[in-house]
Amino acid sequence: MEKNQSLHVFIKEELLDRIKSNQYKIGEQIPPELELCKDFNVSRTTVRAALNQLTMEGYLVRKQGKGTYVADQKLKQTLSNTVKRYSDQVAVQGKKAEIALIALNVIPANEKLVSTLEVTLNSPIQKIERIRKASGEPTQYEIAYIPWDVAPGITKDHAETSLYAALKDTFNVYIGKTTEHIEITLADENVGNRLDCQEGLPCFYIETIAEDHSGKKIEFSRSYFRGDKTNFMIERHYPLD
Fold first, then answer.
1. How far apart are CA 180 and CA 175, in angstroms?
2. What is the pLDDT of residues 143-152, one digit of tens each?
3. Domain span at residue 60?
């Protein structure tokens, strides 16, 4: 557990990983509160706070007198393509872009990263935490995971510019495709601290998987965007017939 995380935030993230890695399957009842208390060695109040947030965010559903179940998957929508860098998108709106590195560590791959990045358990993964700002205001908190063998030795300089440009220019790794899933979530204590906003503020949450042109997984990232600071444009093109 990270230093700035409260217990209920840590438990929420652990349960969310279990849901997203299909350890807890859709429609399946999750363990009761008392069992989770023993599992995490915490109070029932702490477990309940984590379950309440996951329920509010649509990952769990409570059934009166029966228990708590994994909710159905949310509706997936495709965003339009863009290859513009963050700095370019911000600049055209008359603001100054900044990317600040919070932490850069090498961690062992857990089950979630094994399934997402198609790596082996405990293989070295570079975890990169960054804040993006527009004219000094935090707008995005991002946690990116890149396997060591994809780009060994990512530095602070790489992380505080465009990661994809650094992958291309320094490591000869070219992004061929990204798959993004967008949801609405509420800022927890950690996200609130990172984005300088109140806990409970609605945020856009985007998970991204990047692949090279051969289909090899290059990066997995989780990004939180302040809902009061960010909006997204979707552009679609339709054939004549």
1. 14
2. 999 999 999 9
3. 7-70
**Burial group, residue 87, by CB count within 10 angstroms (0-12, 13-18, 19+):** middle
Q: Which residue has the tokens 């915490």?
A: 42
What number is the average pLDDT over the span 14-41? 94
Any idea what the CATH number is for the domain that residue 117 is in?
Answer: 3.40.1410.10
8 Å CB contact between 178 and 209:
yes
The model carries a pTM of 0.79
Reported as a single tens digit per residue, the pLDDT across 34-61 is: 999 999 999 999 999 999 989 888 889 9
CATH code of residue 25: 1.10.10.10
C-alpha closest to that of 225 among 209, 194, 78: 194
Token pair 């996200």 in the structure block, residue: 191
Work out whether strand 202-211 and strand 217-226 pair parallel, antiparallel, or are unpaired: antiparallel
Q: Please count the residues of the chain.
A: 241
